[in-house]
Amino acid sequence: MIKLRRILAASDFSECSDHALRYACEFAETFGAELHIVNVTEPPAAAYSEFGIGYVGVDKLNEDFQRGAEAKLNTVPSPEWQDKLKIVRRAILGSAFVELIQYAKKEGIDLIVMGTHGRGAIAHMLMGSTAEKVVRKAPCPVLTVRPEGHEFVMP
User: Is the confidence at residue 127, as pLDDT, over 50?
Assistant: First the structure.
């Protein structure tokens, strides 16, 4: 039997990640797993001196990003899940796929659940896909959920 003790739900607070979070909550409840909800915020490149601009208040900017993400994390998942699940929330600054993979390794995550935006081929070539990079490098299985995907419904 598969044992899921720790599930990571990646959240960027979009509709896609909210949809994936519902899957993660269901899995966490079914398996009695601890749910780790992780948000990774990438600060704007212009804030760093190596890009030639050298924003003086980079520490303040990072603190603002951190506080904002932590405040939003405290609002998810929806109230019906708050009492049912053991939830760990983390707001991290950095590159999304790198931080998610490192977090999964460090915390012994058994399953990563994340939304995928399903962008077109050109957008994918230009921006890449965080979900695709996580799938390739993750130390555990990754469930990607499209917003218009199949819904699990109890009969």
Answer: no
Q: How many residues are present in the chain?
A: 155
Residues 96-118 have pLDDT tens digits of: 999 999 999 999 999 999 988 75
Cα dihedral value 121, 127, 129, 133, nearest 10: 130
CB within 8 Å of 90: residues ≥ 6 apart: 36, 37, 38, 39, 73, 103
Closest CA to 35 of 50, 49, 16, 21: 21
How far apart, in whole angstroms, are the C-alpha atoms of residue 110 and residue 133? 17
123 pLDDT more than 50: no
All structural domains of the chain:
6-43+71-145 (3.40.50.620)
Q: Which two tokens stand for residue 55?
A: 């924003």
Buried b (16+ CB within 10 A) or exposed e, 91-122: bbbeebbebbbebbeeeebbbbbbbbbeeeee
Give the model's confidence band at 151: pLDDT under 50 very low, under 70 low, under 90 confident, else very high: low
> Using CA atoms, how far apart are residues 96 and 108, in angstroms rounded to an integer?
18
Separation of alpha carbons 7 and 4, rounded Å: 7
